[in-house]
């Protein structure tokens, strides 16, 4: 049967112009519409209408990725009157290949267009029989135009640029929908803030938001972090512990650095997303989980798929909505607003008094390339607040790398030393400055510093030890 349905990633806009990435789909054309400063998003909904049987006339219109039908009141469409329908009769999953109908071990079976099925793809107008009821399926594709938001602030994120306001508009629109979201962007661009905003503006905001950094967990523990473990499941499992999915029950799970997830664990994650149930490591019980999944990555997962490092089916499952956060250097006009917002924070004013940047200092900040994005900007601000005394922040208060992007002049070597010693000293100075800077940018996170610098974690550890750097002190309090 030819599966019906548009591609889950059919969200359209101009990828170069605004911050919502729509073009990076490995297959299938997306319905992309480009307009000045506007984004169009293709939203997928479907209608289920009981066309005959005791519940005739009941209907459901939903954008849920997975919906259930049966006699039990917890189903999305409840067959109240139909005594021959099972409690959980069938479900419909929105997959990368279309809408998939799955029988849930019902007593009398699920029939699609007259044939009994266990799993089959639906087409527009498909007739599903469950018990004495016939349910007609109709997909509804809604194309929504999203204007840049009027506000230059959303849930703690500041952004006056069109790119950011466009993202704010998109977040407001998709947050209430219970669909998966992938956020892609360089390190420090604000991916976690976006995830928090989506959670905060969703119907799950009263539930927990559980953050799991897939890149920071040792590979041998990631499975138990995700799915939990029973007592004695492995050496060190002294007591049973629920995993992130269980803890996110009723709320949202935020899988940060998803691109770091080992290839052999990806099918396990996919299974959880498809079946919405987990089994703890070392456990037998199947635990149902109900949470929204938001994932973030600084890698280009489409390239990772092509390279065989990331599973395409998992990507499709997660990227119903794909938000691409542009790097700070592509939205420099946000810099003064972010700084102004941070300087106006009550605790900053209380601790440091009223401060402002001189025009020269501000233009240096605007000219810098910000490889560590907003996080680096925030770190520079802390540095500046510590080192500036008066009300005005001057270029001399800025760290050398910001001041000196156009740094000229001779290399600072000691000409009185032998060539070998002078070179060694120069290299050591460079190593110390480089590692200090990358660690500051990564808030003392050695794994992230390793990734960003292209060095092995072991090399970073060696340099931290060699120069007696305080990586722990750089962690956020
Ligand atoms: N638009 C923004 N306005 C104000 N602060 C921001 C904005 N974006 C990011 N920040 C700040 O920058 C820092 C980094 O943000 P965040 O942790 O969300 O980035 P990230 O992309 O998730 O980083 P990583 O890739 O390293 O996980 C945080 O201190 C956050 O508060």
From TrEMBL:
**Pfam families assigned to the protein according to its UniProt record, in alphabetical order:** AAA_lid_14, FHA, HTH_8, Sigma54_activat
Entry-linked InterPro entries: AAA+_ATPase, AAA_lid_NorR, FHA_dom, Homeodomain-like_sf, HTH_Fis, P-loop_NTPase, Sigma_54_int, Sigma_54_int_dom_ATP-bd_1
Q: Give the span(s) annotated as Disordered.
A: 1-27
Keywords on this record?
ATP-binding, DNA-binding, Nucleotide-binding, Transcription, Transcription regulation
Using the record's annotation, list all stretches that form the Sigma-54 factor interaction domain. 157-386
Q: Where is the composition biased (Basic and acidic residues)?
A: 1-10
Source organism's superkingdom? Bacteria
| Occurrences of domain FHA (ranges) | 67-117
Q: What is this protein called?
A: Sigma 54-interacting transcriptional regulator
What species is this protein from?
Answer: Hyalangium rubrum
């Amino acid at each position: 049967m030819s599966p019906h349905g548009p591609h889950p990633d059919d969200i359209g806009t101009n990828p170069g112009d605004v911050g919502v990435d729509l073009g990076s789909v490995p297959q299938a054309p997306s319905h992309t519409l480009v307009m000045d400063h506007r984004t169009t998003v293709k939203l997928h909904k479907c209608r289920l209408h009981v066309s005959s049987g005791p519940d005739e006339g009941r209907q459901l219109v939903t954008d849920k990725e997975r919906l259930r039908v049966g006699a039990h009141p917890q189903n999305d469409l409840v067959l109240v009157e139909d005594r021959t329908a099972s409690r959980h009769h069938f479900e419909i999953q929105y997959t990368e290949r279309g809408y998939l109908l799955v029988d849930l071990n019902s007593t009398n079976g699920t029939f699609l267009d007259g044939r009994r099925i266990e799993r089959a793809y639906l087409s527009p107008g498909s007739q599903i029989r469950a018990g004495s009821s016939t349910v007609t399926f109709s997909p509804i594709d809604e194309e929504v135009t999203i204007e840049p938001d009027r506000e230059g602030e959303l849930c703690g994120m500041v952004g006056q640029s069109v790119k950011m306001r466009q993202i704010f508009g998109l977040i407001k629109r998709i947050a209430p929908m219970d669909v998966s979201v992938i956020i892609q962007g360089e390190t420090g661009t604000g991916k976690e803030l976006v995830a928090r905003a989506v959670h905060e503006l969703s119907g799950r905001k009263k539930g927990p938001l559980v953050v799991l950094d897939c890149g920071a967990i040792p590979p041998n523990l990631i499975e138990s972090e995700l799915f939990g473990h029973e007592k004695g499941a492995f050496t060190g499992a002294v007591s049973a512990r629920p995993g992130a999915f269980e803890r996110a029950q009723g709320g949202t799970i935020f899988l940060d650095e998803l691109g770091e997830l080992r290839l052999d664990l990806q099918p396990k994650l996919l299974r959880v997303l498809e079946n919405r149930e987990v089994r703890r490591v070392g456990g037998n019980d199947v635990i149902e989980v109900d949470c929204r999944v938001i994932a973030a990555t600084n890698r280009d997962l489409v390239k990772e798929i092509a390279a065989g490092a990331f599973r395409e089916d998992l990507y499709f499952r997660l990227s119903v909505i794909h938000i691409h956060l542009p790097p700070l250097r592509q939205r420099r006009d946000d810099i003064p607003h972010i700084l102004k917002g941070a300087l106006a924070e009550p605790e900053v004013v209380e601790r440091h008094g009223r401060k402002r940047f001189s025009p020269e200092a501000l233009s240096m900040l605007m000219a810098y390339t910000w490889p560590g994005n907003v996080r680096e900007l925030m770190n520079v601000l802390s540095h500046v607040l510590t080192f500036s005394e008066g009300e005005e922040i001057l270029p001399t208060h800025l760290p050398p790398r910001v001041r000196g992007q156009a740094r000229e002049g001779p290399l600072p070597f000691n000409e009185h030393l032998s060539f070998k010693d002078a070179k060694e000293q120069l290299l050591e100075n460079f190593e110390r400055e480089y590692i200090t800077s990358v660690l500051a940018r990564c808030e003392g996170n050695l794994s992230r510093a390793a990734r960003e610098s292209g060095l092995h974690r072991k090399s970073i550890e060696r340099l931290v030890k060699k120069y007696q750097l305080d990586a722990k002190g750089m962690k956020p309090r």
